[in-house]
Design brief:
By secondary structure, this protein is α+β, with helices and mostly antiparallel strands. It has helices spanning 3-11, 15-43, 72-77, 112-115, 123-131, 140-146, 189-195, 215-225, 238-247, 252-281, 283-291, 296-332, 339-358, 366-399, 412-439, 442-447; strands at 55-60, 68-69, 82-90, 94-95, 103-107, 135-139, 153-158, 163-173, 184-188, 201-202, 204-209, 233-237. It folds into 2 domains: 3-45 and 251-447, no CATH class; 62-231, no CATH class. Helices cover 57% and strands 14% of the residues.
């Protein structure tokens, strides 16, 4: 019998305790993977287009939520290196109610296709959008989420501006390079300007630069032009601007990092306690093994290996499970939502089998059998409900985040990091019990009663 086989046998000796420990680690690692996936998705916003499309965002130096004079448009357009220019105003309208949130902007339409040249719009649709005051250009993914089609009338309700605007969908755009960007809604700035009785201001300007070598020069020239004015500007790349917008949510990296650390710290104590109990129960066996010739290093490997195997199993289930679960939800939520029943059923099976296993060996009397069956069935029903709610909650949040979580998923690097964390938990939790067991003399070990 080799050492790994012995480690595996010991890990399965108390199956109830092993199952509970693995379940605890699985849930903890799943939570850590989820937090890191959310963080990665948020900070990925704009990263794909950070400079590849030669766009700059001009906004107010005192804050990205403060407007700029509309007259700045002509001045910026006159600068060398500026190829095209579009003014954009965040509208923040809601479709039906607050639950249906997506990015919607009033824009200057005349040079839109030159600035956003990564968007693909059929020429006839682009012409129809530009020619209609209340026309709307909508991302393909957003169309699919709300089951819209060309020609539909859409009303956006806005409490900030105090107006409701009705639109006719005239064009649909796609972004082959980054489909996650297909969740925005654009309409003619003149429409908003007229309804507001003349805004004379704009949220920001999106500038298309001739080539990458000109980007820094154009940035400096724009900001220098308006320096010492009443409305000073700050010009950023798309990625820097997007990350600035995300920073308004607070220091998410620190917050999520602190939560993850707390979860890992807590589960470390759980696994450490489990390992200590296991070693304490088998102290006499350690003495027998030393009598049979097992050396100190072998005992150390045996105890530490058992903890690492249990922790790694929990890590694999948690990290890989999170990656597969979120990938399945986002891939099926809008297309075949009925598959959510399958997701719920999987949750029910896992919960039911888990409780069934926990009651194993509880006794042969009829009352124990009835309790085991009843608990397993109730757990399966609860698991089905939780799985179904989880499926719909994740799908709804990801598809109604205004593009913020459009590319949500657990990156491969996060999976690897979670597995490393799981192994670390196993090693650290076993350090003290393993050293103690390996240092016991044969006499001390055999004298132990567990």
């Amino acid at each position: 019998m080799n050492l790994f086989h012995l480690i595996w046998k010991n890990a399965l000796r108390n199956r109830r305790r092993t199952l509970l420990t693995i379940s605890s680690i699985t849930v903890s690692i799943f939570l850590v993977a989820t937090l890191q996936a959310v963080l990665a998705s948020i900070y990925r916003v704009g990263a794909q287009n950070g400079g590849s499309h030669l766009r700059l965002i001009v906004h107010r130096a005192t804050g990205i939520t403060q407007p700029l004079p509309i007259s700045y448009r002509a001045k910026i357009a006159s600068l060398p290196g500026v190829k095209a220019l579009v003014g954009t105003q965040w509208f923040g309208g809601q479709y039906i109610d607050a639950r249906n949130f997506f990015a919607n902007f009033a824009v200057h339409t005349d040079q839109f296709e030159r600035v956003f040249d990564d968007y693909q719009v059929p020429p006839n649709q682009l012409k129809a959008w530009k020619s209609e005051r209340a026309g709307a250009l909508v991302g393909k993914k957003l169309m699919e989420i709300y089951h819209w089609k060309l020609g539909d009338r859409i009303t956006l309700v806005n409490s900030v501006f105090g107006i409701n605007l009705e639109f006719m969908i005239r064009a649909v755009y796609t972004d082959p390079e980054d489909p996650s960007q297909e969740q925005s809604f654009y309409f003619n700035y003149d429409y908003l300007d007229e309804e507001m009785g003349g805004l004379n201001q704009i949220g920001n300007f999106v500038v298309k630069v001739d080539n990458e070598a000109d980007m820094q020069g154009v940035q400096d020239a724009i900001d220098a032009m308006f320096r010492h004015s009443a409305f000073e500007t700050k010009t950023d790349t798309e990625q820097a601007y997007a990350l600035g917008f995300v920073s308004m949510l607070g220091n998410l990296k620190r917050l999520f990092g602190a939560i993850s650390a707390a979860v890992i710290f807590a589960i470390l104590f759980v696994v450490g306690n489990t390992t200590a109990m296991s070693v304490r129960e088998r102290t006499a066996e350690v003495g027998v093994m030393k009598t049979l010739g097992f050396r100190r290093k072998a005992i150390l490997k045996l105890v530490a290996g058992e903890a690492v195997v249990i922790a790694l199993l929990g890590g694999i289930l948690g990290a890989v499970g999170a990656k597969l679960a979120y990938a399945f939800i986002l891939a099926t939520f809008e297309g075949t939502r009925a598959l959510g029943l399958g997701f719920g059923a999987a949750g029910g099976v896992v919960s039911g089998l888990g409780i069934w296993s926990l009651f194993a060996g509880s006794g042969s009397r009829a009352v124990f059998k009835v309790v085991r069956y009843a608990a397993s069935v109730l757990s399966a029903v609860a698991g089905f409900g939780i799985g179904l709610v989880f499926y719909n909650a994740v799908g709804t949040i990801a598809n109604n985040s205004g593009g913020l979580l459009a590319d949500f998923g657990v990156p491969f690097q996060t999976v690897v990091a979670c597995l490393v964390i799981a192994v670390g938990i196993g090693v650290l939790s076993a350090a003290v019990p393993a050293l103690r067991a390996s240092r016991l003399s044969i006499t001390e070990a055999l004298r132990s009663t567990g």
